[in-house]
Amino acid sequence: MAPPVVKKSVKKEETPLTAVLIADIFDQRFTPVLRQNESISLLPICNVPVVDFALSWLLRTEIEDILLVSSQRTAESLKDVEKNWKPFFQTFSVIGCEGARSVGDCLREIHNRELLKGDFLLISNPATVTSSTLVREISNFRKRRAENVDNMMTLVYAASENRDKSVVGIQRETGKLLLYHAANNVRQLEVDKDHFYNDVDIRRDLLDCGLAFCTRLVATQFSDNFDFQQRDDVVREILSKEDILGLNIHVDVLNSNEAALSATDYDSFLTLSIMLVERWFYPITPDKAISTNRRTFFPHVPIMFTSKRLRRRLDVYHRKLFPTAQNSTNSTIGETTSIGDNTLISRCIIGVGCKIGADCVIEDAVIGDNVVIPDGVVLKYEVLIGNDVKIPESEERPPLTAVCSTAVDEDEFEKIVSRPSPKFDVHYWSLRNGKSFWRNGARLKSSEGSDNDDECNDSDLEESDAFSTGINDSTKQFYEEVLESMERILSMETQLMQNLILEINSSRLACNVSMDDAARNVFAAFLVLPGNDQLAQLLKLVLKWKPLFLNYYKSTEEQLAAKAPSQRKIEIELKRKCQIQMLLAVEDKYDRERAEFGPKVPKLVHFLYNDADVLDEEAILEWANTIAADSPLKNLMQPIVDWLQAEDDDDDDDE
């Protein structure tokens, strides 16, 4: 074990920071390579559990209090981590959160349990490594807080040579974040043109490090907004409501000689492994990592093969252990794994106790423990093999699948399906949405998803087409899932709205859509339900499903009374915007079905306002004001607008 780093004491007048390290990635894509109830933070990178790298670099900072937060299901697997690392920090606790499925759930839990005593560093992902001690970034955060208590968050980025990363807009003089990339496309800005006149740097050369310095108000934002799942939800909320909330977010970019990476999928895990081997994060290196795990990297044992610039140092060990194997580049190989003659391995993470035959070719692969691969097998391009698998000699691996030894528990992992091999004792797992295990959705939207320029251009064209029709792929998927859920609930004798709300929220999380898009598409799906082409049936179902609409479009008096005055104002403003989205869904259907649906629009809007009490007058008038003057819908809505304005005049006269 390496000796502990001597930590600089924090000045007495400065409140110590707490590190909130989220130990889960909350992505079922990692299920194939994890043992039952095992945390993703124990996944080995360079044969060291990835959480040990995160804690090793935290040890180099001034932070002495650690909250390692996970779902309750995986918390037990982290007890050894807590035991091993307690001596190195002033406090170290593993916090299990019952039912947690996102970073937001974890933050809500620790906020409700009052575990945060002050400002904190949020590390959204255990596979986050940096060479920085964050001295400058911590100082900047504290300085901004001292200048203005409303400076609630600082995001940490690293400079990147690839100028096609996520895009942000930063105020040149202050470092204040003004523009943030779209939720469904990290290369697309959500832009207010006014910002272009205020010394804003549009940066496309920054890599999100997964680090954010936060005040407790960030945790409060999660608690006040149950649908917030990721840090980015809070970022977009603050930026979109700056005039109301008066809160600020800033950006710090690491020095050019400091590296950082937050791995979120298999592809970036491989990149992280290679960067660790090549010592980009020095002094955080595999041979110096503090770890008592049996997978620890030993510098005198050839369990790792590196890029060409470090190959020469390890060739002698490589030849001793695998005398007739081909060169193995950019790969890490677990202890007691054996490799046959003339086998080529490239860009792989291979577990312990594996037996790989002769004359094999294995490229771009993540392979679990105790896997047996027979002679002559070729495995290329996004290969994912679970633990304890015996690879068939002659069966071709279906595309976009993971090879596992057992069937998936579809009750626990609802996003994955599996089918057994007809001839061999293996199961092929795949995602229900037909996408790849290898990369997550955000990375598929970025340039990191492909090395081929033509592919990127095709993707851009597809996105452009989607936006030109007002809907993108993730929003379309959300709409389809909501419609499916509504149709299923509608067919039931007992139609429980709470169950439907939970399903819709789950779809919103999975599809990563904004609150505005959710509000618009929930009502759009409702309008096309069977029977709703008849006005009487439509109005009847509106009343029956009123709890659903109150959840998304209007808060009750009791709910508002329970909130602080400032939060009450924010809640009313949020629901007003959602009501406008509801009316835009009505307008969308009118545009598609003018003849059939047009006469129903005024009656439906009046009913939602007067009978169902779901719409407010302000939302109706604001929406009606946006309808084109030459649109027939303007004339259809004019009587209601006149009636509402007349009511206002009567109220003014009474006063």
Task: Provide structural commentary.
By secondary structure, this protein is α/β, with parallel strands linked by helices. It is built from 23 helices and 29 strands. Strand 28 and strand 29 (427-431) form a beta hairpin. The N and C termini lie far apart (78 Å).
Core attributes:
single chain, 655 residues, alpha/beta, Serine Threonine Protein Phosphatase 5, Tetratricopeptide repeat, 7-stranded mixed sheet, 23 helices, 29 strands, globular
Largest sheet: 7 strands, mixed
Annotated CATH architecture of the domain at 470-654: Alpha Horseshoe
Uncertain runs are 8-12, 294-325, 442-471
Structural class based on helices, strands and sheet pairing? alpha/beta
Residue share in helix: 25-40%
Number of extended strands: 29
Which strand order do you get reading across the main beta sheet? 5-4-1-6-14-8-15
Oligomer: single chain
Radius of gyration from the CA trace?
A: 27 Å
**What portion of residues belong to β-strands?**
15-25%
Shape: globular
Mean pLDDT: 82
CATH domain class name of the domain at 470-654: Mainly Alpha
H/I helix tally: 23
First-residue to last-residue Cα separation? 78 Å
CATH fold group of the domain at 470-654: Serine Threonine Protein Phosphatase 5, Tetratricopeptide repeat
